[in-house]
Amino acid sequence: MHILLVEDDDRLAAALTAALDRLGHQVVRAGRADDALRLKDGADFVLLDLGLPDMDGLEALRRLRRASAVPVIVLTARSEERDVLRGLRGGADDYLVKPFRTAELVARMDAVVRRGTRPLAGSGTVVAVGGVRIDLAARQLEVDGRPVALTRREFDVLALLAREPGVVRSREEILDAVWGDLLLSASRSLDVHIAGIRSKTGCPWLVETLRGTGYRLGTGGCS
């Protein structure tokens, strides 16, 4: 994997680069946010420190997310729950507090990759319902033949529901599968993403809410 390591601490960057190199990864290191944003397109994975000299890492994360869906793990000394939630809400796939073991980082990277490439259930990779066509393998969405662009996490939520139409997914199950962190269960992050799916597709029925139970793929039709 091509990994972009965004870290201004020379000693930590050198140690991580050596460890990841030994595992067969190719690491490019950026010590500043502006360099990271310039190098993002060549990365398969981003490891992002928040304490950067030219820009707060959370702002760098927001800018990165506006341009790319590349997986991101935040690496930081900020351990308060509000910082963790801000990182996850800002688009990070996981959040690891320093100091950490390299083995744990690698395990978390593997988990993020698995969440993005898990086998698809059902007989095919295309789900069609009410004028909506969801291509799970290509990560493409069409409504009445018109392509609709979702964010990475919006598509992940929709894909989770579409893999097994009719199956109700609890709020906690979705947060665990897509965000990988149940700390978000009391937040409105999932609500915001579901609202985005409904708004962008023009199909409010597409994600059906079952109060007190969870969510499932709807069966209506867009008008």
UniProtKB/TrEMBL annotation:
InterPro entries recorded for this chain? CheY-like_superfamily (IPR011006), OmpR/PhoB-type_DNA-bd (IPR001867), Sig_transdc_resp-reg_receiver (IPR001789), WalR-like (IPR039420), WH-like_DNA-bd_sf (IPR036388)
Q: Which CDD domains match?
A: trans_reg_C (cd00383)
Q: Which GO terms describe its molecular function?
A: phosphorelay response regulator activity; transcription cis-regulatory region binding
Q: Which residues carry this modification: 4-aspartylphosphate?
A: D49
Which residue ranges hold the DNA-binding region?
A: 124-219
Where is each Response regulatory domain found?
A: 2-113
- Biological process annotations from GO: regulation of DNA-templated transcription
Domain OmpR/PhoB-type: from-to ranges: 124-219
Please provide, in alphabetical order, the Gene Ontology terms of the cellular component aspect for this entry: cytosol; protein-DNA complex
SMART domains this protein is in? REC (SM00448), Trans_reg_C (SM00862)
One Pfam family assigned to this protein is Response_reg
PROSITE patterns the UniProt entry points to: OMPR_PHOB, RESPONSE_REGULATORY
Keywords carried by this UniProt record: DNA-binding, Phosphoprotein, Transcription, Transcription regulation
Q: Which PANTHER family match?
A: REGULATOR OF RPOS, SENSORY TRANSDUCTION PROTEIN REGX3
Q: Indicate what this protein is called per its UniProt record.
A: Sensory transduction protein RegX3
| Source organism of this protein record | Streptomyces bingchenggensis (strain BCW-1)
